[in-house]
Every structure is written in C-alpha cells, then in structure tokens.
Design goal:
TIM Barrel; globular; 9 strands; three-stranded parallel sheet; 13 helices
Length: 332
C-alpha cells in the first residue's frame, strides 16, 4: 500500500474565498472526493499570495490561509494536518487524507527570522523562498521576461533562513528559484531538498524548468523533483509529453528522485485580478491535455505501466520518494 503524494497544491486559495462567501466543509464535500478518486493520500498545500497582497498584506494573507486550513480540517473527518512523518503514516494507515503545510514564496516572512519559528509552530513544513518575484531572501525565476537590473542569488538573510529552516526540520523547495539562487541553495544545504513542481529544461526551454545539472544536484542531496502539469512547462502541452518529462527525470536523476507535483491551478482563474491574469495568463496555468485534475492523478501510474515501469518503481514515483524525504527531514 504505497503512499501517493502530491507535492504541490494551491487549493487553499480556492477554499478561502469560498468560506468567505459562507461555504463550509469545502474539503470534505468538494476536494476530498476528487482526491480519493485520484487516490491521493498526502498533499502539500501552499501558502501563496498573489500580487494584490504584496508586500504589505502578505503576512495577513498567510495567517488567513492557515486559519482556513485549520477550520476545514476541524470540519473534515476524512482529513488531518501532518507535521511529522508519523502523521503521514497515520493518515495513510487510517485512510485519511493528510495535508502538509507549505509556503510558495516567503513574502509572509519578510526579513524577520523569528516569524519563521512562528509559522513552524503553526505547522509550516515546506518552504519555497520565492515565487516568481524577488523577496528579502532570494531572486525568483520570472514566468516571462521582465525589464530588470542585475539578478542575484540568496541574500545574507536568505542564507540565514535556509540554515534555520534546516535546523528546524523544514524542507527547502527550489522550484521557483532562479539559477543563481538555486546554486546558492546547493552550496549551503546539508539535507535533502525538493523541487516540488518543476520539469526538464532540455525538453521545454523555460527558466522555471531544471537543467540536467540541476536535476542531478537535487538528486545528489537525496531529494526529489515533482513533475509539473501546467501547460506552460510542457510543450506540446499534453499527457504524452508530460510523461516524457517524467522519463527524462528518471534518466538524468534516477527513479528514486522523481515524483509528482502537478500544480493543478486553473480553478484559481476565477479569483484572479486583472493584474494577476496579466502576470499569469490563462493558457499558462491550464493543465496539459489528458491530465486535467485530481480525479486523474492515478493516470500517471497507468501511463508508467504502459511504458514498461515495474510496480516498485511506479510506487516510488507516485509518492514513496517524497515520503522518504519527509521521513528524513521532518523532526519527530
């Protein structure tokens, strides 16, 4: 009974506005059935603040999304918050859906390292230092070319946060870092890291995708790369070419370092401001043809079987690899 693991999801940014409009039990009534159909056991849910909240309201937004998750789990007998590997195992063994709290872009933390400790106490276990913008910690990878000055890597503040996060047992996620920041993480990190939702630059030349050298570097830490199903990062944007990215990760990094982080997020289009839509156009955020959402998550296992993968390797890719990293990095 292998664990099926989704390393990156933005469902909090759907659940929160629905609760503001009076809905309750959004996980239990809407998301859990979809996840069960796709056989997803564990999911990292991201604290993500779109551009209308940056920078002044990022902290408030982050706390609101955590409160939303707490409220939803209280109303959902079929789900639980996971802050340790023991919790992940308990969720799997009891048939509950386990949610792990992550952060996609460290804007809520500002430059105050004490705030990281508070978020840890609230359940944060995965930290992406940037989204597609510059933070106090590092420079992110732009989704499209921008007029900008000289790019940089990790700041001194970013290095301090990285080291503190490692000591606390927070997993570092490099998916949205630019190349200099990525290599700075590799220089300073001493534990397995993840790229929760990234693809292969060799197959789709985009700065959000990883080079062969970066794929090998993540694998060398003992980490895992989760394949991203957003159409922007797969060309042509269909399931067959998404599977090619999985196979390429296996070829370059190894089957023990390949996983899934589809980043299904087209449902967020309903809530985007015009400014955010201009930054993240519809066609970028829509999933690849043939792999449209949580209900189809298990399609990947079927496609891997068709391509000749043995059951033990399919189990690794579907989730056991990510489960291993969480076992090795999270504190008991």
């Amino acid at each position: 009974m292998a664990i099926v693991f989704d390393a990156h999801s933005d469902i909090l940014n759907d659940i929160h506005p629905r609760r503001l409009l009076g809905e309750k039990e959004v996980i239990e009534k809407f998301w859990a059935p979809k996840m069960r159909k796709g056989k997803i056991d564990i999911r990292v849910v991201a604290i993500y603040s779109d551009i209308q909240y940056l920078p002044e309201l990022a902290l408030r937004r982050g706390l609101d999304l955590i409160a939303t998750l707490y409220e939803e789990i209280e109303e959902s007998p079929s789900s639980m918050l996971c802050t340790t590997y023991a919790d992940i195992k308990k969720a799997k063994d009891t048939g509950k859906i386990g949610f792990v709290l992550g952060m996609e872009g460290a804007e809520p933390l500002g430059s105050d390292i004490q705030v990281l400790r508070i978020f840890y106490k609230l359940g944060l276990r995965v930290l992406g230092l940037t989204h597609a913008l510059r933070t106090y910690l590092a420079d992110g990878s732009f989704l499209s070319p921008k007029k900008a000055g000289q790019i940089g890597g990790l700041t001194d503040v970013g290095v301090a946060f990285l080291e503190q996060a490692q000591d606390m047992g927070i997993i570092i996620d490099v998916s949205h870092l630019n190349d200099p920041s990525f290599w700075d993480v590799i220089k300073f990190v001493q534990v397995p890291i993840i790229a929760s939702h990234s693809n292969c630059r060799k197959l789709r030349d985009h700065p959000r995708n990883l080079t062969d050298e970066q794929i090998k570097a993540v694998a060398d830490t003992g980490g895992v790369i989760g394949v991203n199903a957003c159409g922007l990062f797969v060309q042509p944007p269909d399931l067959n070419h998404l599977m090619d990215h999985i196979e390429y990760l296996v070829k370059i990094g190894g089957v023990e370092h390949t996983g899934l982080g589809p980043d299904f997020a087209d449902y967020l289009l309903e809530y985007m401001t015009e400014k955010e839509r201009a930054r993240i156009p519809d066609e970028w955020i829509r999933p690849v043809d043939g792999f449209s959402g949580d209900e189809e998550f298990s399609k990947i296992a079927d496609e891997l079987a068709k391509r000749g993968y043995k059951t033990s390797d399919i189990d690794l890719i579907m989730g056991e690899n990510f489960a291993r990293v969480f076992r090795d990095v999270l504190k008991p």
